[in-house]
Design a protein that fits this description.
The protein is an all-alpha fold. The protein has 10 helices and no strands.
């Protein structure tokens, strides 16, 4: 079967599951709301990075993105769905590639929308404190927001294919993103700059003193994502459906 109809069938699966559609909506809503709330906090104005303040909600919106990726992939391991999918598309690599595109593309669109809304809401709430954000920085951060969230969703999808469980995937990633990354970052110095979340979020900062730049940071996150997808592909190809 050609790639296009395989992709179309995978997209139909996603858009007909209400929980996945809700996750996409949550990516936009959660990111924008928490970005606006961050702008109301004036306690750290001395060291304020107005650009990151406007995109602070990505820290929470990424939870919705990884939930989307994990659920979209793990749904194939319930009720024999994967056997049905592979019966229609025997070439497992082609099926997995279509699933990955069906996961990444809508999150990229939702992430770009979330970035636009967050920038507008964040700068509106910041008021005069947002004066340091240039147009080029705003565009870079919006694009970075979309790419970063799409990469994190694909990272979760790759892990879900490897672990064959959405619950197990989220049990690993959510504590890591909310707790472990910050603890490791405080204790390990510049080594933490190469963690997938910290590297990718450099694009959302106006100023950054780490080892990576905005695009090199996203490249590091892309390497983590590629590794997870390769591990997921290997698992799909070698293990029984």
């Amino acid at each position: 079967m050609p790639f296009a109809p395989v992709l179309h069938s995978e997209w139909l699966k996603i858009r007909t599951l209400r929980s996945l559609v809700a996750c996409l909506a949550a990516v936009v809503l959660v990111t924008a709301v928490f970005s606006a709330l961050a702008g109301l906090d004036t306690s750290g104005d001395v060291d304020l990075d107005p650009l990151f303040s406007a995109f602070f909600g990505v820290n929470f919106g990424q939870i919705a993105a990884i939930t989307f990726g994990a659920q979209a992939m793990s749904s194939e391991f319930r009720g024999g769905a994967l056997r049905t999918s592979l019966a229609a598309v025997p070439r497992r690599g082609r099926w997995f590639a279509a699933k990955a595109v069906a996961v990444g593309a809508p999150v990229l669109v939702a992430g770009l929308l979330a970035g636009c809304v967050s920038l507008a809401a964040g700068t509106a709430v910041l008021g005069d404190r947002a004066g340091g954000i240039s147009g080029a920085e705003g565009v870079r951060a919006v694009v970075g927001c979309g790419v970063y969230l799409a990469l994190m969703a694909l990272f979760a999808a790759g892990l879900a294919a490897l672990l064959r469980s959405g619950v197990a995937t989220l049990s690993v990633l959510v504590p890591f993103l909310l707790l472990v990354s910050f603890v490791v970052g405080d204790m390990s110095g510049n080594a933490a700059d190469f963690l997938p979340d910290r590297a990718g979020q450099v694009a959302l900062h106006g100023t950054w003193e780490g080892l990576l730049g905005p695009w090199t940071g996203l490249a590091v996150t892309a390497v983590w994502t590629a590794a997870a997808l390769l591990a997921g592909t290997r698992s799909i190809r070698r293990r029984d459906a």
